[in-house]
Inverse folding.
DNA sequence: GGACCCATTGTTAACGTTCACAGTCTTCCC
DNA sequence: GGGAAGACTGTGAACGTTAACAATGGGTCC
């Protein structure tokens, strides 16, 4: 009778009975406790195998207070940058034996970040990575010390939380110096949205490089990372006199700029040189292939997990690290000597 | 003394004591049980507020057997398609009050998918969405009925699992018919990797449209979704005589094709018309702007969650649905009358 | 040969919630 | 006024694991 009924999942006690030991011994085998006779161990292992037992991680989390789950809060994971970073985070976390729970925000405002953090904290995550490159998000984070360890990616000034980021200033500098070294009088800039720290950093690097070379910095054109905004900036630039070099704050906008120039009959790189930022997979096949600054998103992801795990598993109180990943210059065909 | 010690998180019993009720009453308030006197309810709510109590979801999951967490298995979330789908899934899941745990596979092989599924099942997810457009993954899924409800996205033939997908065949047909309607004698095709069901579907649609028009189908060129592979296919096509229309299986490869044509002096759309697939945000700003087939990834994500939740929460045994999202044609400037 | 240590195992009690059931106190009806 | 049907609340036992401690047995050391 009742054989048709789905047999319920075996629990530790079932394994114990099958192997003729106590449930605690089963637990010890599972947790690789040293003091278990090897013969006992194999007997337990066989019982586990026979019954198809799988340990209930929820029950385990209840008593250990560790869920082995990490939370990730990110902004629009459709964009290449965030997507790649989250991907790197996920890979690194899984390699370390952690699950990853994701909250992807449509827009980043104070309450949005706060809710996401609460939401994840409720779930009992052991730590949180916040991929929140906007100033508002970064500030929220500073106030908001939840019970769990936090690492910010691109999170601005290291306040109360550890930060892992790419050196945006250096990237902006690299791009600008490259253009200056080709003999351009000055370099125009299509910047990202003012709320974004990354945008700020690139502007700062651009300004610094110009200042160092004793050149005046033209007014930067505002964009929002989208190809369309780049396109519009490109139309403006095409209509202006004396523009021979442009540093665009990301590759997508650079694509828009290239498109606008092409429409207006402005030849790249013959008349104007263009440098992008990110090195998305498409950049190499733009017309012309885009010279750009590469961000190692994978390294960012890996490092953020490393810092976070150190905070979670390490015993000593951490010193709120700030880990900076260097960008690199990628030469292609969109820039030329003046 | 001991005030410096971090006060431990309050639990239900603490709230109960504070409010002068039993822990069960607190539980009832939290779970919105109807039979609680409203005065009692406010007293409990005040106690919760005062103590800053937050319900322990792990303990709750242990007894209810529901974690309110959904698992997502995906292949390379760096690609636009998977990234957008996962984004849609995450949004829909959160709206429904579920957490999302992600496993992003580097490569999809049988063991990879199996491990991911086990991994998620161990964690106690209530259901799993598998974004696995490869044939091998889809087949693995069929064998592998774990204890939890599963929905496959782009999962091929609806076998034992429900499937949500975009009508790839229809997409291929739309692209091809558009080109034929412009007066092109035949349409060449740069296809995706043969292991991918999406690639197969697009090939099938392309073939069907050609057959219906009574045209011979040239041998398709093989690509791997990357711009580079499109570039190589483009070089081949540029060197061939009689190529006037090309349907490329995704926008990234189409970019490579456009690049190759541009290098070889082949004018698009004057000499050759090109149609892509996906409608990534960049496509509108390619040179020339790319005519393409749009996939509504957001709808796919939403639908997959809907189907999954129906399986989880609905009482009646589901009939292994197959939900097809139609693609749409987006006209731009990369195609022209012959 | 007795004390003691260590390896191995078992027993009992948490962890913080919900479920099942048993109360108590109204209210309402005949 | 007796009873029954609700509304509301409390008590005890799960859920499946790990932690703490106790117990057993064999060996070693002097």
């Amino acid at each position: 009778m009742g054989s048709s009924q789905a047999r319920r999942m075996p629990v530790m006690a079932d394994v114990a009975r099958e192997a003729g030991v106590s449930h605690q011994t089963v637990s010890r085998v599972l947790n690789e406790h040293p003091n278990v006779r090897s013969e006992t161990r194999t007997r337990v292992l066989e019982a586990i195998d026979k019954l198809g037992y799988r340990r209930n991680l929820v029950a385990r989390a209840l008593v250990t207070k560790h869920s082995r789950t990490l939370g990730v809060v990110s902004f629009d994971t459709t964009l290449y940058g965030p997507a790649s970073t989250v991907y790197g985070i996920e890979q690194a976390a899984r390699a370390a034996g952690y699950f990853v729970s994701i909250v992807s925000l449509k827009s980043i405002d104070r309450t949005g970040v706060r809710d996401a953090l609460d939401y994840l904290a409720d779930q009992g995550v052991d730590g949180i990575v916040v991929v929140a490159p906007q100033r508002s998000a970064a500030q929220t984070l500073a106030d908001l010390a939840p019970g769990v360890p936090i690492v910010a990616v691109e999170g601005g000034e290291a306040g109360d939380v550890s930060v892992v980021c790419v050196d945006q200033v250096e990237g902006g500098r690299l791009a600008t110096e490259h253009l200056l070294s080709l003999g351009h009088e000055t370099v125009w800039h299509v910047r990202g949205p003012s709320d974004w720290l990354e945008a700020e950093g690139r502007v700062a690097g651009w300004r610094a490089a110009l200042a160092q070379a004793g050149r005046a910095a033209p007014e930067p054109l505002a964009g929002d990372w989208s190809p369309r905004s780049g396109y519009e900036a490109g139309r403006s630039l095409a209509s202006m006199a004396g523009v021979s070099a442009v540093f665009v704050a990301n590759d997508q906008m650079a694509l828009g700029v290239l498109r606008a120039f092409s429409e207006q009959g402005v030849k790249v790189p013959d008349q104007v040189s263009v440098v992008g930022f990110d090195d998305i997979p498409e950049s190499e096949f733009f017309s012309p292939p885009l010279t750009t600054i590469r961000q190692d998103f994978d390294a960012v992801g890996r490092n953020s997990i490393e810092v976070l795990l150190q905070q979670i598993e390490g015993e000593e109180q951490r010193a709120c690290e700030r880990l900076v990943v260097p960008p690199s210059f990628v030469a292609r065909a969109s820039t030329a000597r003046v």
Observations:
- Residues 66-166+297-325 of chain A form a domain with the Rossmann fold fold (CATH 3.40.50.2300).
